[in-house]
Amino acid sequence: METRALTDADALALARAEARAGRTEGGVPIGAALVLDGAVLALGRNRRVQDGSAIRHGETDCLENAGRLPASVYARATMVTTLSPCDMCTGAILLYKIPRVVIGENRTFRGGEDLLRERGVEVVVLDDAECVTLMRDFIAAEPELWNEDIGEE
Questions:
Q1: Which cofactor does it need (predicted)?
Q2: What is the rounded (10 degree) CA torsion for 47, 108, 100, 12?
Q3: Which of 52, 88, 90, 127 is 20 to 30 Å from the Cα of 81, by its Cα?
Q4: Rounded Cα–Cα distance for residues 73 and 88 (Å)
Q5: pLDDT tens string 42-77
Q6: How many domains does the chain have?
């Protein structure tokens, strides 16, 4: 039986599920998926609250969950994230030379998209209504936690 390759929308649905799970755990609702050739290599979600971590954002958690991979894998992969990546996550994407990033939404927060584009990364913004709602509801409910997550007072 042949397995159908994931579309960007399919991968974003997996990242959204991670975001919802993170929120249920009391964390920040941001999820991510690392995809290669239409298959998921790893999933992740923001785990700063759950793990008491300074750096476990959705994308960095996803990379950690993928484990050590050869540069040739990253060079063909796509990072799918529910929210525009912050500077730290943008840096990780650039460090590992991930050539494509799919973003669920950038209305509630706009991260390093311009830098990614300047460095040759293909950036696709899906403007997903559910991702927007997840973040708007979270920011309204927990503005202090959100500000902590993005390094603001």
A1: Zn(2+)
A2: 70
A3: 52
A4: 21
A5: 999 999 999 999 999 999 999 999 999 999 999 999
A6: 1
Is residue 1, in this structure, part of any structural domain at all?
Answer: no
Q: Quick one: what percent of the chain has pLDDT higher than 90? A: 96
- Location of structure tokens 């997550």: 149
Residue 139 CA to residue 70 CA, distance in Å, equals: 37
8/26 Cα distance (integer angstroms):
27
Catalytic entry in 2, 18, 25, 59: 59
Model pTM score: 0.96
Long-range contacts of 144-149 (CB under 8 A, 24+ apart): 145/28, 145/49, 146/28, 148/48, 149/28, 149/46, 149/48, 149/57
Tell me if residue 25 is catalytic. Answer: no
User: Does 3 map to a domain?
Assistant: no
